[in-house]
């Protein structure tokens, strides 16, 4: 970002100064500096992808030193990235040993689905009381098409990312900002669970069908059907998780 100063009052009448002032205003109003990625950002992304891709087993313990050597970088950015992942709830620190992937307990899993069911039921009720624009319906259906592409490409992580965006978009359209923030805060934990759920054969196809039913019932403003479909969808996801844990 740069600043321009007009030092001499006698120049202020020039037409180009008005244009320049306007350009500077527009720059300050709309343009923001591009944030450069730090080494810590890169380490965070790589370790996060490894966690979500299943590169680490549940019982595996790894250390800051091991990761620094594997990534061929210094320990400082690795330490910062790992601290953030612990804060995000994806890793747990084991004293005098290292770190491991957080194991979501059955109680925590039940609590997450209870919270999501309560929120998303209210979301669908509100959406069916509204008239959703064709543009917003197109956005929802486009997410489903992208999910189908991710499924065909066996891209589980992108599929789950789109799944999260689908549910967040519903909440956004209902203008429930606080509820949306709660779902965002649960994103990492639900992503870990979601990857387990979609690993069951055929689950991704089921998710697409369930999402389409939810959209259709919202478009038809059918509160009863929308409520049933969203709860069925969440229950099916929960059951898929329990199936994987057997």
TrEMBL record:
Transmembrane segments: none
The keyword Secreted appears for this protein: no
The keyword Transcription appears for this protein: yes
HTH gntR-type domain mapped to chain residues: 37-104
Assigned keywords, A-Z: DNA-binding, Transcription, Transcription regulation
One Gene Ontology molecular-function label: DNA binding
Superkingdom classification of source: Bacteria
Pfam families: FCD (PF07729), GntR (PF00392)
Protein name: GntR family transcriptional regulator
Organism expressing this protein natively: Peribacillus deserti
């Amino acid at each position: 970002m740069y600043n321009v100063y007009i030092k001499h009052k006698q120049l202020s009448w020039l037409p180009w100064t008005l244009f320049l002032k306007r350009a500077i205003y527009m720059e300050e109003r709309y343009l923001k500096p591009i944030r450069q990625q730090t080494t810590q950002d890169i380490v965070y992304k790589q370790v996060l992808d490894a966690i979500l891709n299943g590169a680490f087993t549940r019982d595996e313990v790894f250390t800051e030193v091991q990761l620094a050597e594997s990534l061929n970088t210094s320990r400082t950015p690795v330490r910062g990235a790992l601290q953030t992942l612990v804060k995000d709830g994806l890793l747990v620190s084991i004293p005098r040993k290292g770190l491991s992937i957080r194991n979501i307990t059955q109680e925590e899993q039940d609590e997450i689905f209870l919270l999501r069911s309560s929120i998303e039921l209210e979301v669908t009720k509100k959406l069916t009381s509204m008239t959703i624009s064709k543009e917003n319906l197109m956005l929802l259906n486009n997410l489903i098409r992208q999910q189908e592409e991710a499924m065909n490409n066996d891209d589980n992580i992108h599929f789950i990312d789109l799944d999260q965006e689908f549910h967040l978009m519903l909440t956004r359209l209902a203008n429930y900002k606080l509820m949306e923030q709660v779902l965002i805060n649960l994103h990492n934990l639900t992503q870990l669970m979601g990857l387990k759920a979609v690993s069951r054969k055929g689950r991704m196809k089921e998710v697409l069908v369930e999402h389409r039913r939810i959209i259709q019932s919202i478009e038809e403003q059918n509160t009863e059907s929308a409520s049933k479909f969203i709860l069925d969808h969440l229950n099916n996801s929960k059951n898929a998780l329990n199936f994987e844990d057997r």
